[in-house]
Design a protein that fits this description.
The chain is of the alpha/beta class and 298 residues long. It is built from 9 helices and 14 strands.
Length: 298
């Protein structure tokens, strides 16, 4: 069953393009990652889905209903976590969540349990909360009414690693219960941990749609090495055989390894090492490599 479908969805702000001919289909029970650089059209897409704005052309359906004007009943079936959090500053966390529950006409909600899980003190006022605590409050608010579709826009910014891990487990639990999740993020590792499929948007156009396993560059790693021997060793030890584009900056040799990591590490470790870091390329680095100049990622 399709929860969400867009057909040639297009939005212009005057002469400025927001998104163009966006075609998406998201199935019930799916965790869908939506990624792209700043200004790519992610926020425009989310605002359209939330009925905060409406398309210039094209169409979209939610829960099988085509939306041409605002439909509050449809919106009640959606949980929304925006990237920027704004609440009534004078209310306590508990008061704000209780108000939200009343607006949804909920008799009972799991406010205390979620607050304990996310380590949020509900007795404090919103204005006293840090960015991370406001984000925790927004997470709980988005889940209060057990939505069928949860839309998350950069959900982990401001959260410490422990709370991020708990949040991911909570999302997995809700998804296992049937909740569909639409996740917009800059963080590739979040997509890998959570998502079934991923769509990549650039300059308002969908340029790649695939399973996470098929995401270009997913298996690549950057190996940063500081050798015990000082200086640029690229020519001396023919490091170009490991990576033709190996870089040397401030005492560190950076190798970009696309496959057979064990073979590359064996070659790199033929010389005494004082320090080594292995990391996944950032989403920005992958965009520069695969999408920065409009190249075909395949």
């Amino acid at each position: 069953m399709e929860i969400l479908k867009t057909e040639k969805l297009t939005k212009y702000y005057g002469k400025t393009k927001g998104i163009l001919d966006l075609n998406l289909e998201i199935e019930k029970g799916e965790i869908f990652g939506f990624i792209g650089p700043n200004g790519a059209g992610k926020s425009t897409t989310i605002r359209l889905l939330m009925q905060l704005i409406f398309p210039s052309s094209g169409s979209f359906t939610l829960f099988g209903q085509q939306l041409k004007v605002e439909n509050p009943r449809i919106r009640q079936r959606i949980g929304y976590l925006p990237s920027e959090i704004n609440f009534y500053h004078e209310l306590t966390g508990k008061q704000l969540l209780e108000l939200s529950a009343k607006l949804y006409e909920l008799a009972t909600v799991e406010i205390e349990q979620w607050a304990e899980l996310l380590e949020l003190d509900l007795t404090k006022t919103v204005k006293s909360y840090s960015l991370g605590n406001r984000k925790k409050l927004a997470i709980i608010q988005s889940l209060l009414h057990e939505p069928e579709l949860l839309i998350l826009d950069e959900p982990t910014s401001g959260l410490d690693p422990l709370i991020q891990s708990r949040f991911f487990e909570l999302l997995k639990e809700k998804n296992a219960q049937g909740m569909t999740i639409f996740l917009s993020t800059h963080v590739l590792s979040e997509v890998e941990k959570l998502c079934h499929r991923v769509g990549i948007i650039r300059e308002g156009r969908l340029i790649n749609l695939s399973s996470v396993a098929e995401l270009p560059g997913r298996a690549e790693r950057i190996v940063e090495v500081r050798y015990e021997e000082d200086g640029d060793l690229r020519e001396k030890y023919s490091f170009a055989q490991i990576d033709p584009a190996v870089r040397y900056t401030d005492g560190i040799h950076s190798f970009h390894v696309q496959s057979h990591l064990h073979e590359a590490l064996a070659a790199i470790a033929q010389h005494p090492i004082s320090d080594i870091i292995i990391k996944q390329p950032s989403l920005e680095e992958l965009f520069m490599k695969y999408y920065g100049r409009g190249e075909d990622p395949k």
